[in-house]
Amino acid sequence: MKSDRGLSLIELLVVVAIIGILASVGFVTYNGITDSTRVSLVKSNHILVKKYIIEEIQMCLHLDKEFESITNKAYQSNPSTNCSTNPSCKNLKLFGDAKSNPGAYFDTAKCPFEYYSMIKNPFESNSNAFVSSYSIPSKDKIGYTYMNFDGATGKGYKISTRFGSGTNDVITETIPIPE
Fold it and tell me: Would residue 83 count as lying in a domain?
């Protein structure tokens, strides 16, 4: 004989409990994967900023190639933050090389990062991740990359990126001034 009886209350509670356990394990795993992806993106931003700014300065110094912040029309769309008002490569060279005028070269190369959000903060989706600063991002500034000429030592450009809230969750390095 076929029984038309459904699940008992106990059986139904067991099924709901199993689904709840599986969902919580999946949620924790998903959050861990998401956080590690964000950390990887922040570290990639660090590398991108470092390479881009140094390459822009080197191309000006050695190839007389104009800064992208001046030639790329996308960076002239906002008059209050117009990168084309920065000194050109030719004008910067009139006042010395990157060793004698490191801040001016940096100011022209950084424009797309600072004013046009060339990199985004994966922890704050609509936030620009770049700040022109000498300091290290504080523990509440996860996902930010700070960079500027290190005037305190004069040894180069200091770049610091915070990828977590822990004391050691930061990458800091000094990049020599291109010659």
Answer: yes
pLDDT at 143 over 80: yes
The answer as to whether 6 is a domain residue is no
Cα gap 121→118, rounded to integer Å: 10
pLDDT of 127 reads 82
pLDDT recorded at residue 32: 60
54 part of a folded domain: yes
**Burial class of residue 19, CB neighbours in 10 A (0-12, 13-18, 19+):** exposed
| Number of structural domains the chain divides into | 1
- The answer as to whether 122 is a domain residue is yes
Q: 132 exposed, middle or buried (CB, 10 Å; 0-12, 13-18, 19+)?
A: middle
Domain ranges, residue 78: 13-175
Residue 11 has pLDDT above 70, yes or no: yes
Q: What is d(CA 175, CA 102) in angstroms, rounded to the nearest whole number?
A: 12
Specify which residues 157 forms β-bridges with: 149, 175
